Amino acid sequence: MSSDVHGRTLRLELSDQSLRSFEATVLASSPDGIVVDRSAFYPGGGGQPADHGVLLWQGVETRIEGVRKNDDLHLIPAEGDPLPPPGTVVRAAVADERRSALMRTHSGLHVLCGVVFRDYGALVTGGNMEPFTARMDFNLPEVPPGFKETVEAACNAEIAADRRIDVRVLPRAEAFAIPDIIRTATNLVPPEVEEVRIIDIVGLDTQADGGTHVASTKQIGHIRVAKIESKGKGFRRLRISVSD
């Protein structure tokens, strides 16, 4: 199966991360979720939350408050909102400010990951994000003096360098031949995945990732390392914020 298809749904956001509106046909519909033939709603994963938005149909609006992944992608309607029947053509809109904020935040985490791996050799053990705020955990035994300020300055230098952020899909064997392509302490790419999506911050960081990203580091804005926490022996949590 193509990596751009999940169940019966073509995932438009994987090939066009700028897409915010699209037309689709409803395949199934219930209060638990709406299945459409094509969707630009990011369903969540890799620490990035699912998109929100609306479906417009026959003069009616259905708010979408998330996405659930199982055999199909199910767009989760707001409780009590009307449901478009199967066969209905809907006009969908992804909430732009939220998605754009998450793209900037996700790309900011990749800059952070790239800097900490390059300068300290630490791998990621976990992470999570909301719009403009995020955390990333590293297997970092020691925190050198001035670490917080040094990492923040290095991240913002990479942002100012306006590095291009490329997306490509490679066969699994070819992807895993790239040195250090997995930046997590545990390989999270399921064995049944035959094509691996690669996010490349050119000259800084190349890793497997399924999320959405801005086109260059300059679009991230500014990173502030807000706090460093100890999460047990050898593990550190870095909390960051992203701003203009």
Topology:
Layout: E1 5-6, E2 9-11, E3 21-30, E4 33-36, E5 38-39, E6 53-57, E7 60-69, E8 73-77, E9 89-94, H1 96-120, E10 124-130, E11 133-138, H2 147-160, E12 165-171, H3 172-176, E13 195-201, E14 205-208, E15 222-230, E16 236-243
Parallel strand pairs: 2-5
Antiparallel strand pairs: 1-2, 3-4, 3-9, 6-7, 6-9, 7-8, 10-11, 11-16, 12-13, 13-14, 15-16
Helix pairs in contact: 1-2
Can you give a write-up of this model?
- Keywords: Metal-binding, Zinc.
- It is found in: Cytoplasm.
- This is Alanyl-tRNA editing protein.
- Its cofactor is Zn(2+).
- It comes from Sphaerisporangium aureirubrum.
- The structure is a single chain.
- The protein has 244 residues and is of the alpha+beta class.
- Helix content is 18%, strand content 39%.
- The chain has helices at residues 96-120, 147-160, 172-176; strands at residues 5-6, 9-11, 21-30, 33-36, 38-39, 53-57, 60-69, 73-77, 89-94, 124-130, 133-138, 165-171, 195-201, 205-208, 222-230, 236-243.
- It has a six-stranded antiparallel β-sheet with strand order 4-3-9-6-7-8, with no helix packed on it. It has a four-stranded antiparallel β-sheet with strand order 10-11-16-15.
- A hairpin with a 5-residue loop joins strand 15 (222-230) and strand 16 (236-243).
- The longest helix is centred in the middle third of the chain and has 25 residues, at 96-120.
